[in-house]
Design a protein that fits this description.
The chain is α+β, with helices and mostly antiparallel strands. The strands form 5 sheets. Strands 4, 5, 7, 8, 10, 11 and 13 form a 7-stranded antiparallel beta sheet that branches. It has a 5-stranded antiparallel beta sheet with strand order 6-9-3-1-14. The two termini are 43 Å apart.
């Protein structure tokens, strides 16, 4: 069954917050405008929906697979004869990321989101209004809050001079747009006389404001800095700097350090020239990063993240670099070009110092090329400044020793002697390159559902690669450029112990161990063909035989847990067996709900308490399964008719438990009264187990 994740829960904007102090409004403020102030009857105009999203929150877009899982933003128009909807809704430049919990790519907005919908005006005074459905989620707390706001477009001037033929659409509506929109028939099934559509636009002139604080929110969103972006850049800069230090330990670079330092210490103004030498190295690598940054805009980043070609290309790059480091071949630049730069370096003077630095960059390319290439691949994410920062950080670490040893030549005595250990560093990097190459292949495999690199296949490759690395460190394997190893040094022995420990840690993952430390690198556990964590048929059921469980054919609980999906059924059964009820207010599109299930519910202590101490009921607040008309009712909260499973569950959460965020966990008695304070997103299993214990204790009093 397709999962249509359209939220029917609405937030009454003018309802007194003092009544429901725990309720939270969706963290998006909407404004509505037209792409042009006046049109002729029969012409088209773009409706502009602008959402200003609070800091540290995001809103899902409307243009990805609705069956993937997360909740899409939609705008449902009240159908009338004053206008027609033309085409689909188009979101304006949303961000995109791969979410392993859904096994696919989602699109979303942070700070500000803009949507455009083209309409054809059919009357002098068009009545354009309807309701929006969307969901905002927090990066910080993990809460997800659904929103449903009424909208109305006013102020469009329709001038005389009706069109005699089909008018040309406005800019932005001419080309057909690929996107996701609920069809008219589907929308009608949920709300009478409503058409559903989805789209985006350029920055419009706001003509109508929903709330007085909207303009302030826009200003804050445009001027606020993104702390996650800054943290990401700092982390990338640190990784690039450490990569530069690693590059110094390769056999192409390390032996050159003493010779280069000796050159500067034996001539006039040697220390200044050494400083210029280091600066030249930084400038050369930074220039490379600048060239890459010119190609690295949002469109390029979108191509990198959505298409199989770049992912397979990056896989090939890492794979080839890995083979090069292992000694199969060397990646070198044309000798004629290198010799020409070397001749210019012999000219002396400050220009000669620059070309000497350029020669070092070229000569060391066979060792530094794979590292530099990997950094440039990692920086290809749409940020113009990232490749520049990466190359500047890498080259700074690369240049510092040459400059410092020239300024303080006595430090050269502390350098270890060159030897076979330099090639060992290179080979170890080769194994790591091969392992990381699989990540790019895995991304393409998951996005396009090729099923070539399922979790157990991926783990098998990593186990073999790191197992071979461990044997290499022990001297049991030799590559083409290795010298014989008569004895194993203590550092190599310690590294081999760490490597084999990592291998042993991964082996249980072949049969279902969660391997939480590698969650960001491995394919989803759902791709396992054989999972020992799944319960066997011999396990005794926690639900009495013959017990009717409404909607059990539509929903299921994780980890083979058993429970209910209807609130009244759960309370009735709990009274029969004299147990408290664990209510899980969840949603198909709730990422943090899935994360709680994967990282907290999987804990044995938590599972044992859920199985033995509680009657579980999972209430999906975003499910669009329509109930029989006899089950409909009008909510006391917003005076709207609740027709679907999700709408009624969401209304229950608001009216009964004063909350509208997911995940939200309530422990209640047979009458639905809270036993303890509810709990939301918390990834600490011990805290969750204590929460369950407190509910059980309160029930027993």
């Amino acid at each position: 069954m397709k999962r249509r994740l359209l939220i029917s829960l609405v937030l009454c904007l003018f309802f007194s917050q003092s009544v429901f102090s725990q309720l939270q409004k969706a963290k998006a403020h909407w404004t509505y405008s037209f792409s042009k102030p006046e049109v002729k009857k029969g012409e088209t105009v773009d409706l502009i929906f602008t959402a200003v999203v609070d800091k540290d929150w995001y809103i899902y877009s409307s243009d990805f697979d609705p069956d993937l899982g997360p909740m899409l933003t939609t705008f449902n128009f009240e159908k009338n004869n004053t206008f027609d909807v033309v085409g689909k809704l188009k979101p304006q430049n949303p961000k995109e990321k791969f979410e392993e919990v859904w096994g696919g790519k989602v699109r979303y907005f942070e700070g500000k989101g803009v949507f455009k919908q083209t309409i054809k005006v059919l009357a002098d005074n068009p009545v354009i209004k309807g309701a929006s459905e969307y969901q905002t989620c927090s990066h910080v707390t993990g809460l997800c809050i659904p929103g449903n706001d009424d909208f109305e477009f006013k102020g469009l001037k329709v001038v005389a001079g009706a069109a005699t033929s089909d008018p040309q659409p406005t800019v932005g509506a001419a080309a057909p747009e690929t996107g996701t929109a609920a069809s008219t028939s589907e929308a009608t099934a949920a709300t009478a006389n409503v058409d559903s559509a989805s789209q985006t636009a350029p920055n419009p002139t706001v003509t109508t404001a929903e709330a007085p604080e909207a303009n302030t929110a826009v200003e804050q969103a445009l001027t606020a800095e993104d702390p996650e972006k800054d943290t990401s850049l700092w982390g990338f800069a640190l990784a690039a700097f450490l990569s530069g230090l690693v590059a110094l330990l390769t056999p192409c670079v390390f032996p050159i350090i003493p010779m280069t330092v000796s050159y500067f210490t034996n001539q006039e103004k040697g220390k200044f020239k050494a400083l210029l030498y280091g600066i030249s190295i930084v400038l050369i690598y930074t220039l490379i990063g600048t060239v890459v940054s010119r190609l690295n805009g949002p469109a390029f980043a979108n191509f990198l993240s959505t298409h199989w070609i770049p992912n397979l290309l990056f896989f090939a790059i890492f794979f080839v670099f890995g083979l090069s480091f292992l000694g199969l071949f060397e990646i070198v630049l044309p000798s004629g070009f290198v010799n020409k730069m070397d001749q210019k370096a012999d000219q002396g003077g400050y220009a000669g110092v620059f070309f000497m630095a350029f020669t070092l960059v070229l000569v060391s390319f066979s060792c530094t090329g794979p590292i530099v290439g990997s950094l440039l691949v990692a920086s290809a994410g749409g940020e113009v400044v990232k490749p520049i920062i990466g190359m500047a950080s890498f080259s700074a670490a690369f240049a510092i020793p040459f400059t410092l040893f020239a300024l303080f030549p006595q430090w050269l005595k502390s350098l270890p002697k060159s030897g076979g250990w330099l090639n060992t560093v290179k080979v170890v990097l080769g194994f790591l390159e091969l392992a990381l190459a699989l990540k790019f292949l895995s991304i393409a495999d998951q996005v396009y559902h090729w099923r070539l690199l399922d979790r157990e296949i991926y783990l098998a490759f990593w186990i073999v690669i790191f197992g071979l690395l461990g044997f290499y460190l022990l001297g049991k394997i030799r590559t083409p450029h290795d010298s014989p190893l008569e004895k194993v040094s203590v550092p190599r022995l310690l590294l081999s112990i760490i490597t084999f420990t990592f291998v042993v840690y991964m082996i249980p993952g072949m049969w279902g161990a969660p391997l939480k430390a590698l969650a960001g690198y491995l394919p989803p556990q759902s791709t396992l063909d054989f999972d020992l964590n799944k319960r066997t048929a011999g396990v005794v059921s926690t639900i009495a035989p013959g017990e009717t469980r409404k909607y059990a054919d539509l929903f299921h609980l994780p980890h083979e847990l058993e429970g209910f999906f209807d609130y009244k059924d759960a309370l009735a059964y709990a009274k029969k067996v004299n147990k408290p009820v664990f209510i899980d207010f969840t949603g198909h599109g709730c990422v943090n709900c899935r994360e709680m299930e994967a990282r907290v519910w999987v804990d044995p202590a938590v599972q044992q308490r859920l199985r033995d101490d509680y009657v579980i009921v999972a209430l999906y607040v975003d499910d669009k399964t329509e109930l029989p008309e006899s089950a409909w009712y009008t909510s006391k909260y917003d005076n709207k008719v609740k027709k679907t499973i999700g709408a009624q569950n969401a209304d229950l959460q608001i009216v009964k438990y004063n909350n509208n965020a997911q995940p939200h966990y309530c422990l209640v008695d047979h009458e639905g009264n809270l036993l303890v304070k509810p709990k939301n997103y918390d990834l600490n299993p011990a805290n969750f187990a204590a929460f369950l214990d407190s509910g059980k204790a309160a029930f027993g009093k």
